[in-house]
């Protein structure tokens, strides 16, 4: 599907990575009556988005009426903290990789986002890799 609107809430890194399961900078908010995340189905498939909560997690499933020929993986690369005028910043690049399900072959690797976010928590225990 094609993302047509995605308002990233990533100008600030608000909390440290205790148990993070999703790479920093790929999250979004989905809240009634706000335009945060919109996508358009440009495929011939019918999709169903299911969202539910558990005791500690917000969970989601994306289902379709036909098996898709590809697997997609989101990867974070080039992640580091930098000290710059104005504070400490978190940096990374987010890539989307597309694999053929039958062969396992990597078909495409696309840079989808670069993050540069001001760290808003105690930075005493962070490894600062770059100073600018």
Summarize the structure.
The chain is mostly beta strands and 132 residues long. It is 0% helix and 55% strand.
- Characterize the quaternary organization of these chains: single chain
**Span of the ends, CA to CA:** 39 Å
Mean pLDDT: 86
- How do the SSEs run, as a string of H and E? EEEEEEEEE
Q: Count the domains.
A: 1
Name the helicity range.
under 10%
The Cα radius of gyration reads 17 Å
Class based on secondary structure composition and strand pairing: mainly beta
Shape estimate? globular
What is the count of β-strands?
9
Q: How would a crystallographer describe the biggest sheet?
A: 5 strands, mixed
Number of helices: 0
Strand content: over 45%
Strand order within the widest beta sheet: 2-8-7-6-9
Contiguous low-pLDDT stretches (5 residues minimum) are none
Folded structure, characterized:
This protein is mainly beta and 132 residues long. It has one domain. The protein is 0% helix and 55% strand. The chain contains no helices and nine strands. Strands 2-8-7-6-9 form a five-stranded mixed beta sheet, with no helix packed on it. A hairpin with a 5-residue loop joins β7 and β8. The radius of gyration is 17 Å and the shape is globular. It starts with a strand and ends with a strand.
Q: What brief labels describe this structure?
A:
mainly beta; 132 residues; 9 strands
Strand and helix map with partners:
Layout: E1 2-6, E2 12-13, E3 37-40, E4 47-53, E5 58-64, E6 70-84, E7 87-100, E8 106-119, E9 128-131
Parallel strand pairs: 2-8, 6-9
Antiparallel strand pairs: 1-3, 4-5, 6-7, 7-8
């Amino acid at each position: 599907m094609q993302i047509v609107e995605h308002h990233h809430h990533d100008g600030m890194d608000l909390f440290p990575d205790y148990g993070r399961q999703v790479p920093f900078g790929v999250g979004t908010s989905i809240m009634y009556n706000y335009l945060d995340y919109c996508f358009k189905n440009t495929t011939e498939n019918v999709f169903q988005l299911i969202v539910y909560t558990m005791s500690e997690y917000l969970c989601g499933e994306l289902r379709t009426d036909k098996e898709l020929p590809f697997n997609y993986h989101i990867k974070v690369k080039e992640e580091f903290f930098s000290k710059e005028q104005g504070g400490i910043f978190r940096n990374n690049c987010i890539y989307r990789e597309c694999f053929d399900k039958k062969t396992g072959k990597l078909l495409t690797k696309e840079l989808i986002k670069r993050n540069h976010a001001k760290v808003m928590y105690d930075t005493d225990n962070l490894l600062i890799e770059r100073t600018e």
